[in-house]
Design a protein that fits this description.
Elements: H1 6-63, H2 71-100, H3 106-140, H4 143-149, H5 152-164, H6 171-175, H7 184-194, H8 208-250, E1 261-266, E2 275-279, H9 292-327, H10 337-358, H11 363-373, H12 378-382, E3 399-400, E4 403-410, H13 419-434
Antiparallel strand pairs: 1-2, 1-4, 3-4
């Protein structure tokens, strides 16, 4: 009986092992292709949604003249422009590099792309900070103080700063390679590990001074200002709610022969034709004051949720990246590139969320969006707005064609309220409009 030699057994094992290895390799290639396709679809959806949302905000401001009357909306549309550029200029190249695993546009364009990345994302964050400061002045200051502080010139200066300040931490140091001083060897080693030259790999590392300065200017300082501003906004808004509740209780006693006249005036217009009076009768019973506590709780809860969503999304999207950006140079650049990529795209997603947080929550913008998406159907232009001619419709917390309303109470001689009451109501309306609760 013939027996197989050890050499034949070894050859058979090798021959049977080759198909298995080929099958396993094909399976891995197939899974890799599926992952690449899924990643491409996911990144494309992010880019398309970011472009659509921010473009819609810009078109709405251009088509609706009432939106252009409010100063805060200029910050919102400039923010939308910065986020739109992030989606058009930065995200596509980052997506191509991530899905293909290589950079094919040369070293110079790598520096330009990186500079644009830092410039536009920092500009977006600074716009968020300016919006917070604008809301702080609108809610926490007296109406006249807000108008004196937020003049068109000051708004233009703030917008210019949002675009000029990022250039000092983007194009200027990156094109001069100041971020690479002292870590040239580490950058070359990283390029060698990726298996490419300067023209086929886009490696961007920063030294410790650049990491600290850039992170402070682009994130930590704006974050501190936003936290302080929104904390004061919440406290002031809740104070207004309590003071209005006190005024309502003080005015709940029935007084015959009196009728308060509510003059509603657009805070962005001085045209007397845009004023109208709303008359209501005094004498509300104590039973009508029962829902006050529940209404106050709803206002507080809604304001808290709005601020929590705004700050929560901002911190969730950008805090991981900037924490890693500061820590990585001090731990010898040991953070995996996969983590860097995940944090970076999480920050990009913030550019897609901003239109929903700062524009879609605003009733005036939503109405303008409906007009645009429904081919200028005038039914949507009138929906939800308070007509200037219909003086019998009470709009105690209203917005007329996208402009915030200041409520002023003037009573007949038998009944009077203090100027403080008028200020409280005016500021309360600013609070509601600026918090996005309308």
């Amino acid at each position: 009986m013939a027996t197989a030699s050890p050499q034949h057994l070894l050859d058979d094992t090798i021959n049977t092992g080759k198909p298995r290895q080929q099958e396993q390799q094909q399976q891995e290639e197939f899974l890799s292709s599926l992952e690449t396709i899924a990643l491409t679809i996911f990144l494309s959806i992010i880019i398309i949604m970011t472009v659509f949302g921010n473009l819609l905000v810009m078109v709405a401001l251009c088509k609706d003249r009432h939106l252009r009357k409010k100063k805060t909306n200029y910050f919102i549309v400039s923010l939308a422009f910065a986020d739109l550029l992030v989606a058009l200029v930065v995200m596509p190249f980052a997506a191509i590099e991530l899905t293909t695993g290589q950079w094919g546009y040369g070293e110079i364009f790598c520096l330009v792309r990186t500079s644009l990345d830092v410039l536009l994302t920092t500009a977006s964050i600074l716009h968020l900070c300016c919006i917070a400061l604008d809301r702080y002045y609108a809610i926490c200051c007296q109406p006249l103080v807000y108008r004196n502080k937020m003049t068109p010139v000051r708004v233009a200066v703030m917008l210019s700063g949002c675009w000029l300040i990022p250039t000092f931490i983007s194009f200027l140091p990156i094109m001069q390679s100041w971020n690479a001083i002292g870590i040239e060897d580490i950058i070359e080693e990283r390029r060698a590990l990726t298996g490419g030259s300067n023209d086929t790999s886009c490696v961007f590392l920063v030294n410790q001074p650049y990491a600290l300065i850039c992170s402070a200017v682009a994130f930590y300082v704006p974050l501190a200002l936003m936290v302080l501003a929104y904390q004061r906004i919440y406290v002031t808004a809740m104070t207004h709610v309590r003071q209005i509740e006190t005024l309502q209780r003080a005015g709940s006693a029935p007084v015959t022969g009196t009728a308060p006249v509510i003059t509603v005036r657009s805070s962005t217009s001085s045209d007397p034709s845009e004023h109208y009076h709303l008359r209501t009768t005094m004498g509300s019973s104590s039973s009508e004051q029962a829902p006050i506590a529940n209404s106050r709780m709803r206002v507080e809860t809604k304001a808290a949720k709005t601020l929590a969503v705004i700050m929560g999304c901002f911190c969730l999207c950008w805090a991981p990246f900037f924490i890693t950006n500061v820590v990585d140079p001090f731990i010898h650049y040991s953070v995996p590139w996969q983590l860097w990529t995940a944090w970076l795209w999480l920050g990009y997603i913030n550019s897609g969320l901003n239109p929903f947080l700062y524009a879609f929550l605003n009733r005036a913008f939503r109405r303008a969006f409906l007009v645009i998406l429904c081919c200028d159907d005038e039914r949507y232009a009138r929906q939800g707005s308070c007509s200037y001619r219909q003086t019998h419709r009470a709009c105690s917390a209203a917005s007329v064609n996208g402009t915030s309303m200041a409520l002023r109470l003037s009573f007949l001689p038998n009944r009077s309220y203090s100027d403080n009451g008028r200020t409280i109501l005016a500021n309360e309306q600013e609070s509601q409009d600026s918090l996005g609760t309308l």
